[in-house]
Amino acid sequence: MSAKLDRLIRQLKESFGDRIGEPVLAFGQVTVVVQAGNYLDVVRQLRDDPALRFEQLMDLGGIDYSEFTGYQGKRYAAVSQLLSITHNWRLTVKVFAEDDEFPVVASVMDIWNSANWYEREAFDLFGIHFEGHVDLRRILTDYGFVGHPFRKDFPVSGYVEMRYDPEQKRVIYQPVTIEPREVTPRIVREEGYGKGDGRG
Amino acid sequence: MADIKNYTINFGPQHPAAHGVLRLVLELDGEVIVRADPHIGLLHRGTEKLAESRTWLQTLPFLDRLDYTSMIPSEHAYCLAVERLLGVEVPIRAQYIRVMIDEMARILNHLLSIGTHALDIGAMTMVLYTFREREDIFDVLEALTGIRMHGAYYRPGGVYRDLPDQMPKYKENKFKNAQTVKELNEARSGSLLDFLEDFTNRFPVYQSEYHTLLTDNRIWKQRTVGIGVISPERALQKGFSGPMLRGSGVEWDLRKKQPYEVYDRMDFDIPVGVNGDCYDRYLVRMEEMLQANRIIKQCIEWLRKNPGPVITDDHKVAPPSREKMKGSMEELIHHFKLFSEGMHVPAGEAYAAIEHPKGEMAVWAVSDGANKPYRIRLHTAGIPHLAGVDELVRGHMLADATAVIGTIDLVLGDVDR
């Protein structure tokens, strides 16, 4: 498997040169970071180049890096998982949105039709706008939902809750009454924690 | 002449053939579908967001709730992703058990899929037959995990426990006399593997009964042949996988092409369709059940001969045995730390895909080194398939929408997450 992935990395370097970031091989998969400006050209070539031939876009998801430990960089990224049936290899393509306040990346819907719903989902949940998408509606959240729930600054319990009001005889929205709580705190341990140095 | 306009109707969210809470807005020209717009999210539980506030282990049972017709394989993708980040080795016996359970789930899933598909388009009897066999598999899962559906059985690093030596038995009551109970308990007298082996011997006969009921049935063929046709090129464009892709003639199965666990040691075939219509996909699923049955038999044979551990002995990932914990301070600390703070997964990103009964199911796990996931992205096969419904039903009659929804093997828990 590893020899095949080395071949993929060599091929990527040959085909794109410095138009893509350095391909990284980690945990058995190859990841490349692409600049938002080159994104469309690069993915189109990834699909059409016979030496690469990624026919399928298996998945595309957003991510919000704002609370990632030790991370300083652009906040939002759209991450696609490509699959080549011909060569039987996979590639992860990551593109960061230039502006953190109004994240925009190009839509790959014309290249792979399957991107349609994935991009709608990333727009709905992370507020990433996909330029060139013909039907960028919300997909998973309720009709009339406000905000983008998977952003790290959106609370798990949300802002509004729904209940039936017997006086008004209809379902109403009201601010949430759930107290936020954290059962297990989130911990990142320092390097070498728990390894033990023989002194107990 | 009067001006005739297109007519828009709601199919669902409360419709027996919508397989859950799917709202399908159909634009009709007479009885011909011009456009279909699926509205999803009515079952959206925010699994990916919930995972971010729970430890790696607490997240695992959520995975069962995604596709509630074939529960345990979803855990498999999650465990593979976490194991890849942790770099732990899974004991070989656990790998065999996982493969066996996955294939049982494949039969479970296809039985429901074919049964309800037939029910939706008018063959009432079929679902009664397929649910009879589902019951046996549920019994196995109950003996194994304690729960009939949402097992929470796999763990990063192995499986929760070894296969039990006995099956639960029926007891006499006012509805079942001694003779009936004796007959029912006959297959249950041995271990779980004995019961499962008995099932695998019976299953090909059951499968041939379904063939008798449906395969040459004239009404079934009229409702499925030539309906919802998709070419291999379009299926790839649409991101289809699993039987939806193989029905169009693309020989692509992760179990063969990118083998995980011990699939490379198994002897099985991949059935492919020719025409890419509902009927071919039905035939693919029928044959896949038999192939799954073959794999289960091979696993049973291996598991009988090779005892061994079923979970890794790395106590940063898996708990020590109860017995050791009572006698050793070190093990007690491991146990306490693992179930209070949880395991720490090294920083990184891993995308692990498995051949779920419905297609490619994958988990993209992102960790920043904490005891909780930074982000979990769940890719389920249902999303691209449902997104493709518009293309599959265009130009067909209204009644064919039901046939197409049946053939994509839709489960809304899977699509909405």
Please give a structural write-up.
Chain A is an alpha/beta fold and 200 residues long. Chain A has 3 helices and 9 strands; from the N terminus they run αββαββββαβββ. Chain A has a 5-stranded mixed beta sheet. Chain A has a two-stranded parallel ribbon with strand order 6-7. Chain A starts with a helix and ends in a 25-residue tail after the last strand. In chain B, 49% of the residues lie in helices and 11% in strands. In chain B, the strands form 3 sheets. In chain B, strands 1-2-3 form a 3-stranded antiparallel beta sheet. A 3-stranded antiparallel beta sheet of chain B has the order 6-7-8. Chain B has a two-stranded antiparallel sheet with strand order 4-5. At the A-B interface, β3 and α3 of A face α1, β6, β7, β8 and α15 of B.
Features:
heterodimer; A: 200 residues; five-stranded mixed beta sheet; 18% helix; 26% strand; B: 417 residues; mainly alpha; three-stranded antiparallel beta sheet; 8 strands; 49% helix; globular
